[in-house]
Amino acid sequence: MHDKRLLTCISVMMGLDVIGADDEAEMEDASETTTSNASSKNTPSPRAQKEEKMDVDKTPEQISAMKEKEAGNAAYKKKDFETALTHYSKAIELDPTDMTFLNNKAAVFFEQQKYQECISTCEKAVEVGRENRADFKLISKAFTRTGNAYKALKGLKQYSKAQDAYQKAIDIDPNCQDALDGFRECMMSMNSDPEEVGGEEMQGE
């Protein structure tokens, strides 16, 4: 792990991390743009056709879970975090195999500055994602958010844990710009004023 972190340090210092990473929205599917109206009114859009096909393959519980997630996303956009949590929790109850709901729930905890809850939810998301062969970018996102939460807690030990989490995200997705940026910020914070960082850690114990 330390060798990987050293390589990452060298990479970010040399500016080798700009690899054209995707600018993903904070919430999965929460900020998607609407499709154009170029097609005729009676012709379903390709996205609508795709969603209809996907729904055929889903169980009633999974379809209901997706509706709960959409309601949660709408509440999240309005910063109605308690309502968002309620919907995401319901989605998890309906379909515990989809890590996206856990990722979104962790995002709410982060916005509420409930960083320990965010971290534990991200850890659960990674576990569920790996068990169900989730998209590697979703798992990387969970590790990145874990790093963000540790970084927000501050302190020498927290920055070190944040770097470990960012490194795991980078190992999975080398193009994850958020993880690369987070790793760099932790490195700069730890090197800029070690005495201040150490003092923060002592106050937190």
From TrEMBL:
Q: Which GO terms describe its molecular function?
A: Hsp90 protein binding
Q: Where is this region: Disordered?
A: 23-58
Q: Where is the composition biased (Polar residues)?
A: 37-46
The stretches annotated as TPR repeats are 65-98
Q: Which InterPro entries match?
A: TPR-like_helical_dom_sf, TPR_rpt
Q: Where is the composition biased (Basic and acidic residues)?
A: 48-58
| First and last residue of the signal peptide | 1-21
Reply yes or no: does the keyword Signal apply: yes
Stored Pfam families: TPR_11, TPR_8
Highest taxon, organism lineage: Eukaryota
Keywords per UniProt = Repeat, Signal, TPR repeat
Q: Which PANTHER family match?
A: STRESS-INDUCED-PHOSPHOPROTEIN 1, TPR REPEAT CONTAINING PROTEIN
Q: What is this protein called?
A: Stress-induced-phosphoprotein 1
Instruction: Give the source species.
Output: Portunus trituberculatus (Swimming crab)
Q: What is the lineage of its organism?
A: Eukaryota, Metazoa, Ecdysozoa, Arthropoda, Crustacea
